[in-house]
Hints:
GO terms for molecular function: RNA binding. This is ANTAR domain-containing protein. Residues 122-183 form the ANTAR domain. This protein has 190 residues and is an alpha+beta fold. Helix content is 62%, strand content 16%. It is built from seven helices and five strands. Strands 2-1-5-4-3 form a five-stranded antiparallel beta sheet, with helices on both faces. The protein is rod-shaped and about 85 Å long. The N and C termini lie far apart (65 Å). The model has no long low-confidence stretch (mean pLDDT 91).
Amino acid sequence: MSVTLLSDDGPVTGATTGREASEVDVAQYRAGEGPCLEAVRIGEVVRAVAAELPDRWPAFAEQAEGLGVAGYLSAPLCFDEDTPASLNLYSGHADGLRALDVALLELYTTAVEAALRNARRYLRAREQAAQLRQALASRAVIDQAKGIVMAVHRVSADEAFAMLAARSQRENVKLRDLAERFLEDLLAAD
């Protein structure tokens, strides 16, 4: 079993249960055709036996010779529009992957897709929460520096912000970093 991921750089095996499955995947990648690539391309489960390979995928048939695989079953994984993928099962027997296996693989990939989508959503939510925490921390530091500039120079909040922003531009440093350094320098001076 393996998982094929299609990226801008071409197909790669994202996970595999062993060397044999990886070799079958690589043979398809080299040939530019085969059941796993077709499953991704057409968005449907693809089932084949070794005897069909020369007619369906001649370049892959040449690559696959001697790999010991007689049955192929690949299902598209649609969990992310940016990363087309397929789940691939290989058998040493031509009758090793039957119609029932197709139905079971479709059920399995549906569950896998849901789990992968949920995992992505969770990771995105964690990332957004971290970014929001960082933004709030940045804002607090900038507001503190702005308050000090207001008090020292007797200017409005907008004018203090403009002064900090201008210095940030002049020194080519992020406003948050400038404000942080400003506060550290003040604390060190005391």
